[in-house]
Amino acid sequence: MAKHIAIIQGHPDSQVRHFCHALADEYAKGAEDGGHDVMRIDVAALDVPLLRTKLDFEKGRPPEAIKRAQDIVAWADHLVIIYPLWLGSMPALLKGFLEQLLRPGFAFEYQKSGGMAKKLLTGKSARIVVTMGMPALVYRWIFFAHSLKSLKRNTLWFCGIGPVKSTIIGSIDGLTDRQRADWLDEMRGLGDVGK
Questions:
Q1: Which of 20, 118, 154, 160 is most buried, taking the most CB atoms under 10 A from its CB?
Q2: What distance in Å separates the CA atoms of residue 26 and residue 186, rounded to the nearest whole number?
Q3: Regarding the domain delimited by 4-193, which CATH topology (the fold level of the hierarchy) does it fall under?
Q4: Exposed, middle or buried: residue 148 (CB in 10 Å: 0-12, 13-18, 19+)?
């Protein structure tokens, strides 16, 4: 079954193409070959200010770039979020974007009773793709993939997005050309089936 897929490119460098960009391109090619519709959000290309107050987060008017991104996310059945691991977590630019994007009234709704917020993005699935300098096994077993788990459980699940799958690509600077090609093939295959 064809899906609407939104690819969120979270690499903050807009001047140079990185492996994250190649991964997004291959996922998109696979998805289009598989009959899926694809839209992209390049976080580095957006001019989005950081949120600084609870009042702005809850009541402020999102910038136009965020409104467009919200329209894409609302349209999508499946989200693909791609980013490099920086200082053990996602880059600050991506975090700032997600704070702007996943505002009350769009991603969730507070309940008057004070209970759990109503999840407004149910019915959507996601894949998170993280590249990093350290070996993937070190990130998973020594650091317990803490930032990835936080994004899955504390952010996406809170908004109703699930299931959320992940792909961790470690030792990025030491990959051979063959290993890079294998990862690109894997992304194309995931795109083809919309997962």
A1: 20
A2: 9
A3: Rossmann fold (3.40.50)
A4: buried
